Fold:
Amino acid sequence: MINLLHQMRKALVVGLYITVGCLAFIASKIIISILLYKRWKRKHMVYEQGHGGGKMVIFRSSVLKSLKSDVVLNMILKLSNKDIIGSGGYGTVYKLKIDDSIAFAVKRLSRGTADRDKGFEREMEAMTDINHRNIVTLHGYYTAPDYNLLIYELMPNGSLDTRLHGRSIDKQILDWQCRYRIAIDAARGISYLHHDCIPHIIHRDIKSSNILLDQNMEARISDFGLAIFMAPSKTHVSTIVVGTFGYLAPEYFDTGRATVKGDVYSFGVVLLELLTGKKPSDGTFVEEGTTLVTWVKAVVQEKKEEIVLDESLGSCPMEEVNNVFNIAMMCLEPEPLKRPTMDEVVKLLEQRKSDKIVTAD
Ligand SMILES: Nc1ncnc2c1ncn2[C@@H]1O[C@H](COP(=O)(O)OP(=O)(O)OP(=O)(O)O)[C@@H](O)[C@H]1O
Structure:
């Protein structure tokens, strides 16, 4: 009898513990959900828009938040060809001028194909929570039945691609110091995606037209239309091969396995562009049956880097130039495991830069 009473008491205590445990678990979930919702509300301002059943979401920009959504939308709808500042395979980019001192870049993506819609979703998923000085800021978006709009901060100096391969007057500003700084800024942006974002972000389209320059020629990574997430416990994500010819890592091209080392390879190609001033898709490479990477590797092996160095650079510190060639070669190792991580690339670039600054000062 006593034994039975003892057992009932024990069962009651266990039951009580389980109930309290469950209640505490549910309460903690509710509190976390409320906190997450409050955080989301703080960051986003959602406007249900009457025009054509679209929806506008503005975050981060106090200027845009202070304007009424239909005012912003009307300004966007008035954009025309004269406001175009660039165009890519997926859409057209316009300059949206709010007043004499404030402007944004608006990317218009037509809808209709699953590819395009996916690109828009990817861009939003990847960018809404990113806040880094070397990543272009997304201020909001508008989604309508026929098209999607992405509103970014405006990068007044355009893309590295246009500066490097466009009019020669645009190239003048790209002296050695400027190119070195662009390399460090871009490396920091990619390193943030690979190492600090959870899940990690593989950009998959690192190239000079996706490196944009602000008013001080500081570089930021843009265009997350092909970006994919990767859990920290994973080493790769299997996908169909996308990206830009000339920048794709060979193993990704062959297997469709996207890894952070694929971005490292593409960054190595960008370093070669900065060093040589040549475009990876330059017609002469195709004519001669070679590539920018093969061409440069051959001269680096013979220690004749100056042959391929961009003539428009004029005189520059050859020790530093050779170091950047070496970093590029590491990034372009055919074996992905032998390539450095982006964290390491940043350190290699920073170390050499700061050594230079210390001796120069
Ligand atoms: N925030 C911005 N500020 C200023 N210019 C921009 C901005 N975003 C894009 N651009 C300009 O618009 C061009 C087109 O950009 P977009 O991202 O649509 O295409 P892309 O990267 O050049 O090519 P693709 O998307 O086909 O790979 C860029 O190269 C750049 O010159």
Observations:
- The pocket of adenosine-5'-triphosphate is lined by residues 85-91, 93, 105, 107, 136, 152, 154-155, 158-159, 161-162, 205, 209-210, 212, 222-223, 244 (CB under 6 Å).
- The longest strand covers residues 103-110.
- The first helix runs from residue 2 to 43.
